[in-house]
Design a protein that fits this description.
Layout: H1 9-16, H2 21-26, H3 32-63, H4 68-72, H5 77-102, H6 111-126, H7 133-136, H8 138-163, H9 179-187, H10 207-264, H11 266-313
Helix pairs in contact: 1-3, 3-5, 3-6, 5-6, 5-8, 6-8
């Protein structure tokens, strides 16, 4: 009987290729071999999604006009906005995961994020009129944010601990003439070695300086945590503002498109011509009326002047 684990790696990768990336990520817990193959496929899927995004964005930008005013009313403007928003998400995911992926300490864990990115990219590439950016990207924003928060809170501390003890804790308490100190010096790497200067009188390590460094490190950790909370809060505010801006831009594009359609209608041109003609007629009528009034006024003045002259002569 053939066991699935005993199959060649190529065969297992072919079998896994029929699954979604979310299913691949969930099947990593089965055994070590599934974990290795799943990790490779998740990393490949992330880089494939990144390449597919770059290719799609390049193709869309090549079809857009160069002028910014023409781009806003172009039919592909919505696709371009969606792809730019995905680019922002990919860069945030890269800052979170790629450093540890390159160090081979973990893989791209959230497979569901890859599935969602590929779904949105296929929708943009194949659908000539996709939904608005804030509608189609809502799920991607939610799951990617949750994935990054989970990684920073749960997985990252474990990875840092697996890399080794921090340098400020790797202190060797050296005593004069100690043979154990020489053994420890050979075991600890040089870049992680932190030996305090010996006390001039006793020849031992100053523990007070070590305690000061520990206290300083704890204070720095608290500051870093506060800064991280502030950064996450500001990132949430920026995402909310970006969402509002995208909504207003979508409304503005719809209004401009409706305005252009209204201008292109044949009835509107005749209405504009008729309004211009009516305005011209009104101005001509007003001019004729003013001329008549002026003539009447001049005639009255002449009559009054003649009557005065006759009275003077009498």
């Amino acid at each position: 009987m053939i066991n699935l684990v005993n199959l060649p790696e190529v065969v297992l990768e072919k079998i896994f290729s029929f699954l979604t990336y979310d299913s691949i990520a969930q099947n990593r817990v089965v055994c070590n071999k599934f974990n290795e193959i799943g990790s490779k496929m998740l990393n490949k899927g992330y880089y494939a999604a990144d390449r597919f995004h770059g290719k799609t964005l390049k193709a869309i930008k090549a079809k857009l006009p160069r002028r910014e005013s023409e781009r806003r009313v172009h039919p592909l403007a919505r696709q371009c906005d969606i792809l730019i928003a995905i680019e922002t998400r990919l860069s945030m995911l890269a800052m979170t995961f790629t450093k540890w992926m390159d160090a081979k300490l973990c893989c791209f864990i959230p497979g569901k994020v890859i599935d969602e990115i590929m779904r949105v990219l296929r929708c943009v590439a194949n659908n000539p009129s996709p939904p608005r950016a804030h509608e189609i990207l809502q799920e991607l924003r939610d799951i990617s944010s949750m994935a990054m928060e989970h990684f920073d809170e749960k997985i990252l501390p474990t990875l840092k601990m697996s890399m080794g003890v921090p340098p400020f804790l790797q202190v060797i308490f050296v005593t004069a003439g100690s043979s154990r100190a020489d053994e420890e010096l050979t075991l600890v790497p040089k870049q992680r070695l932190c030996v305090f200067p010996l006390h001039p009188s006793s020849g031992t390590v100053s523990v007070a300086e070590f305690n000061k460094l520990v206290v300083r490190e704890s204070i720095n950790r608290k500051k870093i945590k506060a800064q991280a909370e502030l950064i996450s809060k500001q990132a949430n505010e920026i995402s909310e503002l970006r969402k509002h801006v995208e909504e207003w831009e979508a409304k503005l594009r719809d209004l401009t498109a409706n305005l252009i359609k209204a201008k292109d209608l044949p009835g509107n041109s005749s209405a504009i011509v008729s309004t211009r003609q009516s305005r011209k007629r009104k101005s001509e009528d007003e001019r004729i009326i003013t001329n008549k009034k002026c003539k009447k006024g001049d005639h009255r003045k002449n009559r009054s002047g003649r009557s005065r002259d006759m009275l003077i002569c009498k």
